[in-house]
Amino acid sequence: MSLSKLENNLLLFFQEHRDKSFKANDLASQFNYQGSKNYKKLVKALAFLEHIGEIEMVGQGNFRVAQNNNKLVGTFRANAKGFGFISVDPEKPDYFLPPGKVGQAMDGDTVEIRVLREVDPQTGKGSEAEVVRVVERAMDQVVGEFVAFNQDQRQDTGYIGYLIPRLDSGQSLRMMVDSKGLHPVTGSICLAEITQYPSPDNPGTLVGLITKEIGHKDQPGVDILEILYQFGIPNEFPEDVLEQIKEFPDVIDPAQVQGRHDLRDQLIITIDGASAKDLDDAISLEKNSDGSYELGVHIADVSHYVQKGSPIDQEAYQRGTSVYLTDRVVPMLPQKLSNGLCSLNPKEDRLTITCQMTINTQGKVTAFDIYLSVINSSYRMTYRDVNEILAGDAKLRQDYQEIVPMLEDMAALHKILEKMRLKRGALNFDTKEAEIIVDEEGQPQDIVVRQRQTGERMIESFMLAANETVAGYFMAKQLPMVYRIHEQPDEEKMLRFAEFASSLGVPLGGHAATIKPKQLQESLKKVQGQDFESVLAMIMLRSMQQAKYSIEPLGHYGLATKEYTHFTSPIRRYPDLMVHRLIHFYLTRPSKKEIYQETSYLAGAADQASKMERRAVDAERETDALKKAEFMADKIGQQFPGHIASVTSFGMFVELANTVEGLISLDKLSDDYYQFIPSHYMLVGERTSNVFKIGQKVVIEVEKVDISQRQIDFKLVDYESQKADQAALDLAQGQKRLGRRPKQNTSGNHHKPGKSAATSKGRAKNKAKANQGKPKFAKSGQAKGKPKTKQKVRKNKTAKFSKSFKMTKRGK
């Protein structure tokens, strides 16, 4: 059974509003199906949905989703192992789809499912469902590597070859390639249009034709281009945008300055990364006699140039954000704007929007003004130079003596603002971020942890202050606006986090559904300086909801503020451009009717921006994973220290000091059967009571690197020995056995799998001996009958990545 587009959209709408009913007139307005012809189409679609049992009529002409219908519609997320999950309601757990129950669904498809089982609180079994039909396909094209058929294969199959699609989910699909498109050579990375989707007769098989050859897989830079095409990120601007950009001058017109505050004689500077070219924020600061500060945050007025509905605006809307990859930036705006006319380059007049704030010694904004301005930046500073100036570098302080006092005042104000945010409960997740250093051909040369010192942090503080101030102004005026929101954490996730925190001896105050950020902050304070501080912060971060854009001012949980938007980066983020456009609009003092007409698009635009942000993040992560795999490819057999970053039912991920992660598969742990305790993020040995948990120190050997799959496999060499307490042992009881059959090896020689190396009496004896005088680190799979001295690390096989990442002695 296939539904029309209108029927599909109606069904989706009813599924999303299961507890509500709607009149046909309301639906006509919602779907813009007014007028006699359109209204008849709508009524016909409703009648059909009622006829097939998807919706039902209640009361006086109201429609709702059929209440006795156990079919739901949601988004399918595939897994490489053949199963999947369906997200129907963001407030409820996903439905699990076992292998064989996913039908012909592909990752991201909108599908209709039949519920087989709801969550059973008594047994702990999760909900389960099966795909009934695909409602809407998520993909109409794929990117991948082409393999050409020889002449005989072409004649036998009718195809010129096949494409191995690059899918983020890892879902195993193959595309047979039609001869109607391009005919590339083997090894070409290609973009292909899907002409046939998987069917019951041909599961796992697509048919399509090649529409574009991106390049050969061995060419430098093609790997990154492949990722851009994989995520649908445009790498070039369309012709109408290129034509429009020609109309812009290289310098601002003096006439454009009229009506703006002229700040060109003020001492204003930019502070950014050394390689940044899109400078969209500048800062000025003066200290008042009473100790308060006058902070000016001056943001490039992109909305002056990018008019709503223009070709450049439409393209920026579709892109949503600039994408920052290891060796390139894919800009939201053409370079003439992003790096030129809108970039706040030094010694050049630039149009800006200023948020001027008076901030007292407690970090409170006591007065502010938001206005159109023109500036001329005095200095283009880098974070590195600012940090060295603040650290006392004599030469730099001499070179920049004019701004040294202002920089010192900026550092002082930053501390005040940071203290204020922490006092109100803002959460500070100081997570590690990788900086991947590549050569001219894009090959990774080193991976280091990106440094965030005072320079980076103070600019962040000033941007946060401006974003809050702008949001607060529009909230007070009750004017339609786009906000950056971060909602209250999901209750279920918070309950799991509370259980984990409790296992570390850190009880949380409050109720999981209403817990305040201040309470979470207090829990982090309790473990400050302890070994598992970063572990608790990491799990807490994973328990948070994703931040997104919305027209509803729902506040920002992580920042502990009710007022927040994105105002400070309009060159690289479309929501900031919308905010600037609204500032311009409200300065004209519009009527209520004009406000409604101008802002009706905001909800859809906010949703689009959130989706594009997630797409960019996914592409950036994929690129990092690729470059990390490339970097580790020549280090097979080498050993490195690390810590367990994540524990799952199939193994554990170990993070090295340079942020590279690899998997130690559970079937590689041959010394015992292990039970996975999800609430504690822990593996517990059934026989040995050995524990593997997040944060635990280990030494690994790089075993395998698959660049094409972005996967790194580690082998456990040594680990910080820990034993399960009674509570963990109790939780482990009844859990499913995981891993390989344990090898009892009392002689130091491996025995054949399946053969017992000792009687149960002997095992008890060996276990007792092993617990006496056992070293801090116990080698994985070592003999249990006697303590073993620490294994010496083979120094000739230890890689030296950089000063920030070198082998350390075990146990320290």
From TrEMBL:
<keyword id="KW-0540">Nuclease</keyword>
<dbReference type="GO" id="GO:0005829">
    <property type="term" value="C:cytosol"/>
</dbReference>
<keyword id="KW-0378">Hydrolase</keyword>
<dbReference type="InterPro" id="IPR003029">
    <property type="entry name" value="S1_domain"/>
</dbReference>
<dbReference type="InterPro" id="IPR040476">
    <property type="entry name" value="CSD2"/>
</dbReference>
<keyword id="KW-0269">Exonuclease</keyword>
<dbReference type="Pfam" id="PF00773">
    <property type="entry name" value="RNB"/>
</dbReference>
<feature type="region of interest" description="Disordered">
    <location>
        <begin position="733"/>
        <end position="812"/>
    </location>
</feature>
<comment type="function">
    <text>3'-5' exoribonuclease that releases 5'-nucleoside monophosphates and is involved in maturation of structured RNAs.</text>
</comment>
<feature type="coiled-coil region">
    <location>
        <begin position="602"/>
        <end position="629"/>
    </location>
</feature>
<dbReference type="InterPro" id="IPR011129">
    <property type="entry name" value="CSD"/>
</dbReference>
<protein>
    <recommendedName>
        <fullName>Ribonuclease R</fullName>
        <ecNumber>3.1.13.1</ecNumber>
    </recommendedName>
</protein>
<keyword id="KW-0175">Coiled coil</keyword>
<feature type="domain" description="S1 motif">
    <location>
        <begin position="637"/>
        <end position="717"/>
    </location>
</feature>
<feature type="compositionally biased region" description="Basic residues">
    <location>
        <begin position="737"/>
        <end position="754"/>
    </location>
</feature>
<dbReference type="InterPro" id="IPR013223">
    <property type="entry name" value="RNase_B_OB_dom"/>
</dbReference>
<dbReference type="GO" id="GO:0003723">
    <property type="term" value="F:RNA binding"/>
</dbReference>
<feature type="compositionally biased region" description="Basic residues">
    <location>
        <begin position="785"/>
        <end position="800"/>
    </location>
</feature>
<dbReference type="GO" id="GO:0006402">
    <property type="term" value="P:mRNA catabolic process"/>
</dbReference>
<dbReference type="InterPro" id="IPR004476">
    <property type="entry name" value="RNase_II/RNase_R"/>
</dbReference>
<dbReference type="InterPro" id="IPR001900">
    <property type="entry name" value="RNase_II/R"/>
</dbReference>
<dbReference type="InterPro" id="IPR050180">
    <property type="entry name" value="RNR_Ribonuclease"/>
</dbReference>
<keyword id="KW-0963">Cytoplasm</keyword>
<dbReference type="Pfam" id="PF08206">
    <property type="entry name" value="OB_RNB"/>
</dbReference>
<dbReference type="InterPro" id="IPR011805">
    <property type="entry name" value="RNase_R"/>
</dbReference>
<dbReference type="GO" id="GO:0008859">
    <property type="term" value="F:exoribonuclease II activity"/>
</dbReference>
<dbReference type="Pfam" id="PF17876">
    <property type="entry name" value="CSD2"/>
</dbReference>
<comment type="similarity">
    <text>Belongs to the RNR ribonuclease family. RNase R subfamily.</text>
</comment>
<dbReference type="Pfam" id="PF00575">
    <property type="entry name" value="S1"/>
</dbReference>
<keyword id="KW-0694">RNA-binding</keyword>
<dbReference type="InterPro" id="IPR012340">
    <property type="entry name" value="NA-bd_OB-fold"/>
</dbReference>
<dbReference type="InterPro" id="IPR022966">
    <property type="entry name" value="RNase_II/R_CS"/>
</dbReference>
